[in-house]
Amino acid sequence: MEPLSWTGAFAPLVPVLWTALAAVAILALLRWIAGFFLSEGDTQTQSDGTLAVTRGPLEMLDLATWWALLAALAVVAIFVAGGAALAEGAGILGAMSRRLLPVWIALASTFALSLTFKRRLGLYGKLFDSTIGMIGFALVMFWVFAAFMGAFGLIVTHDPLGQSGAMKNELPGMPYTRMLGEVAEGSYPYYLLGGDNLGRDVFSRMIAGSWVVVQIAPMATAFAFMVGITLGLPAAYKGGRLDELLSFLANLILAFPVILLFYLLVTPEIVETGIPAYMAAVMFLFPIAFIAILLNSRYRTRPALNTPLLIAVIGGLGWVYLSLISERFGPLDILPQALDLFDIPGGILVVFVSVVFVNSPTVFRIVRGLAFDIKTRDYVAAAQTRGEGSWYIMLWEILPNARGPLIVDFCLRVGYTTILLGTLGFFGLGLPPESPDWGSTINDGRKLLAIYPHPAIVPALSLLSLVLGLNLLADGLREESLRD
Amino acid sequence: MSDTAPDRIHPAARMHAEEYRAGQIDRREFLTRATCLGVASTVAYGMIGLDAPALAQTATQDGGSLRIQMEVRALKDPRITDWPQIANIYRGWLEYLSEYQRDGSIRPMLLESWEVSDDARTYTLKLRPGITWSNGDALTAEHVAHNFRRWCDRTVEGNSMASRMGDMVDPETDQIREGVLEVVDDTTLRLNLASPDIAIIANVADYPGAVVHPSYDGSDPANGDMIGTGPFRLESHEVGVKSVLRRREDFDWWGKEAEGFGGASLDEIVYLDYGSDPAAWLAALESDEVDMLYESVGEFIEIMDSLDLVKSEAVTASTICIRANQEAEVDGQKPYADVRVRKALQMAMDNNVLLELGYSGLGVTAENHHVCPIHPDYAEVDNPVVYDPEGAMALLEEAGFADFEHELISIDDDWRKNTTDAAAALLRDAGIKVRRTVLPGNTFWNDWAKFPFSSTNWNQRPLGVQVLALAYRSGEAWNETAYASPEFDAKLAEAMGIASAEERKVVMKELEQMLIDDGVIIQPYWRSLFRHYKQGVTGAEVHPLYEIPTYQLGFAAT
Amino acid sequence: MLAFLLRRIAVMLLTALCLTFVVFFLTNLQPNLEKLAKAEGNSRMTDAEVTSFLETRGYARNVFVKYGEWLGVLPGFVIEQPDGSVRGRCFERADSVPPDAPAFCGVLQGDWGYSSVFRDDVGSIVATRLGLTAKLMFWVMVVMVPSALILGVLAGMREGSRTDRSLSTVSILSTATPEYVSGVILIAVFASSAVGLRWFKGTAASAMENATLENFLLPVVTIALYGTGYIARMTRASMAEVMTQQYIRTARLKGVRFRDIVLKHALRNALIAPFTVIMLQFPWLLNGVVIVETLFNYKGFGWTLVQAAGNNDIELLLAVSVVSVFVVLVTQLISDIGYVYLNPRISVA
């Protein structure tokens, strides 16, 4: 079998793309330089009340830039859409586009639905007024869909852990062969993005790696938020000794260099002592406490509803909590095997706990700052005179009014957590060595970077695009929420 | 070489010469065996009708500074040294009784010659005359006796020479046995062993066997100017960064006059630490920051071949063992105590694949019994392991471990990690559940012998019996498999007392087959070692034991 | 002001005390001590040997006592060895306690201890390594601060303009690129034979002695990139805010040239916020330093941190944490004080 080229049948379009991109760059530069010498076209109000804009050279440049950009985007769209239709006929890009077809469909329907109903969707809908926000949202959702579908076996072409001696360090587009035995019937015929140092499929590992990130990063951030909120609100609202103590502790953790903290917490020796397991036991209590207090403060006055609700919620969450922290033969072997719902692999749990631990104090500080500001507002005073409980005020009056900055920070923080996970992988801490997560693969690939860059560059660009997406999304949200 | 040929030639050496002529052993094996029995290598070559190869005495220029890429670790008392890199630094001023050569022979160094009695129980060591320490003292037999006492002191934590001294250590006192040492005169020392041991000369050539001055108290050799017999002294030593050796001025090094030695032409040797990332080593070579590598590995060998460098290769008995610890408890059971489980793991492996993926095919496949064809006592087994993944799964089912998830542990390092990853993939191919764990170096060596299922690298030892005695005898400190077979121990003791190769081979064959049948280890391949260095560097060929004989290094005269 | 400073310093000391104890406690856990014993003794020691190693060297004692000795508030230990000689915290191994050996030798006495990995005084190691990292950081600042400020000011002076949009995208892109991604990409493009540009070196080992553009540019740029975006965004926000202020509008209406408005009126006020951000960037840069020093094989402070942590070198790790905590807290303090001085509207009561 022939190796695939990058674009296959669309090869003639490649020069078009480059020309268009070059044109965009040159025109934009020209426009920028020209901006210093030429003035913009005048706007004149005509007698009939309409505006007429004279077309100066600057406006012509603008127009040309737009057209060049549109041309480049059109070519990219052809690569994606045509690739999905032609598959391998359109080279590696085409084949990848075909594999990602479910993601394209999901993305397109999400956007179609959201754009249609955007006026009824609140802040989420407003996101679709901002180009930046939409681009960010698209990037993030691309990886979320890819991760979920990859986890259900839709997109990946090969087992991300499977090795083939014959595919070691092969370049992108090489046909799949094995050193030992025959290629199994029905297996995908190519390594689309090449093979890594151990003959594993880089494309499949990229998709599988996104699943690790999508599983851990938002969850860990959400946990950090619950810890930060549960502690930050009372610190600001009650103030005094409590505030001083909690702030001191938060600053204590923040004063630790993150890497040192990881090296102290995520080494096999510390795991052996069970410290991360105990930390998990403490930290996972916060979400239960958070939800219980949230409900209790709301329905306190209606015991008929409140009591059974609380029992059900605490019972259910408690069970999940116990199965989460109880690990067979681990330091905390509390729950009998029969009742244990699931076991989190030791490495993942440790990584999760450390990431939550590192993020919580920052969230605490943000929440505390916001709450300090909000607690002086009139509606808080009104609630106080109504005689509401302090937890009710904190959770149902202050918190909703702080949601804008918190949502923005959440997006940024998920991105930051993704970077932290990569850092852990980069130092070989925590996750198992074969793990396809992006940090570990970058670290594995960098050893042979000078000769075979593709195993490291692919996850590097993936991580870059996801974090970029989260940042753009946060920017879009910030802009739109400020317009409120 | 020694100036005077030994008066008598050990009868076993004559027998080996017969074997060589009969084609039973090859030249390399003959040389190792004969020189081990005290035959000078020129004589050994002569016995099989060959001329000793003229030592490559390319004219070297006097002076110069050579920069070598090598991990710079903290120095230790030589006898507790655990890395050849450490020894390569103190090799500048400390020397050995005998020296293991690249061709597999052992030549006398501080010794002039040795004699082994026919029953391998009496060793007569003759010191080379005229050797002085850097403080002016003359080296005497009493000094050597002092070193033997040091080596046999088992009360010192981590004394790795003690395990090499075997029966010379008294298990009661943990010191050297009474009556072993007999100082005949100033230059003659006799060892009277309780039981035969054929490996003593090879053992004292090993890197922890450096001979130290009696005044040395076991402190860090980097503190102050340590007394030695070698031509260099330690100028500076910065762990993890660099170490500098400078030639001793006003010191009359014995090697200058001794035939076959000579050299020590460099003014300065600089060891530079570039971490464990081979890409950094390549970058250092390319940007002209070093002249010579410690070792070239994996894919980088190919790239370095394309540069204007000299490549040297050594076929070795260095290897990796993927082994199960038979006593280890996992989740309350001892999975690897069952021979069927161990056999299944062995049968699921294809050693060719492990060699290709783990070490880029740069070596030869092995047969899972840790005796190498280059060992003089290697014998081919009748029933090697055959790759059979279905059979492996069937065995596991029979043993009731079909659903057991194995945790396969390795160190975080290029080829060891890759080989172990490949092994995990092969196990999965066979349908066996496996989870990989990689530990950083320091953590790994903490518990290396106790992991239930892990991979360990083993460096070459000159004789096959040495390895078996070190790693598979019941209760040995380095027995990482917890293999305890009285039958094996007895056979091994028998082999250790046989000087004759043909006889020993018969026993070795049984020993090898026992290791295979008991599924003790998966030992996939023998590594070849490679090293690249710049044109014009002399004496820098890679040594199968990673030794860098500092006195041999130099720059070719232009 | 003095009271404010004193209070801050007291909190700093308390923080440092707590943190060092946490580090001390974690590094003195049994598995970590075993790791240390094997690293320092022989990596293939038996369990019995490890136990005796730890006992004879004073490791197998109460953690509070050991911490007190490290601090210098408790006298250093003296332990008799099996062979009759003595070993102590404050002197080398000897036949009997030397008469001139001090009773206390801890941080309070200025003795930072001895590194078990590097076999050298912790104080001198940290000093050397910090010096090298300071060199790296100096060049990072030289590259990062001006480029970030220029980017931010250009973007912020006309909010919403095309220049603003494109420069903001650039800064977002750079904040989204962690050091291990940009480092890998930069090496692949500029130092690998695969792309073939080979303009720079992929290692900075030689830069420790002799830094040149060729061996130092990539590590400096790698660290600077990540921080640049962040500072630029802060500058942009602050600049944009200043440009909407009343006095700027007045100046514009008066017909002052735009360039003069930006340079003479807006800039000073716009730089207050970035100043505090730059100060607070220091602790974050430490992260980048560790990654980049590992990636480029530059043996500075970050590399020392990795070595100390990886080998459980207790006293070195403690010194490293003290230094980093100190850097974090001092930069916070400077940022607070600087903020007060630069901003006429705030005063410390």
TrEMBL record, chain A:
Residues 210-474 form the ABC transmembrane type-1 domain. GO terms for cellular component: plasma membrane. The keyword Mitochondrion does not apply. One of its GO terms (biological process) is transmembrane transport. Keywords: Cell membrane, Membrane, Transmembrane, Transmembrane helix, Transport. The chain crosses the membrane at residues 6-30, 64-87, 99-117, 137-157, 208-233, 245-265, 277-295, 307-324, 344-367, 410-431, 451-474. PROSITE patterns: ABC_TM1. It is a multi-pass membrane protein. It is found in: Cell membrane. Belongs to the binding-protein-dependent transport system permease family. This is ABC transporter permease.
From TrEMBL, chain B:
Its main location: periplasm. Belongs to the bacterial solute-binding protein 5 family. InterPro entries: Peptide/Ni-bd, SBP_5, SBP_5_dom, TAT_signal. Residues 106-464 form the Solute-binding protein family domain. Keywords: Signal, Transport. It comes from Palleronia sediminis. GO terms for molecular function: peptide transmembrane transporter activity. It is found in: Periplasm. Coiled coil: none annotated. GO terms for biological process: peptide transport. GO terms for cellular component: ATP-binding cassette (ABC) transporter complex; outer membrane-bounded periplasmic space. This is ABC transporter substrate-binding protein.
Automatic annotation (TrEMBL), chain C:
It is a multi-pass membrane protein. Residues 130-335 form the ABC transmembrane type-1 domain. SUPFAM superfamilies: MetI-like (SSF161098). The keyword Cell membrane applies. GO terms for cellular component: plasma membrane. GO terms for biological process: transmembrane transport. The chain crosses the membrane at residues 9-27, 136-157, 178-196, 216-233, 271-296, 316-342. It is found in: Cell membrane. InterPro entries: MetI-like, MetI-like_sf. Keywords: Cell membrane, Membrane, Transmembrane, Transmembrane helix, Transport. It comes from the Bacteria. Belongs to the binding-protein-dependent transport system permease family. This is ABC transporter permease.
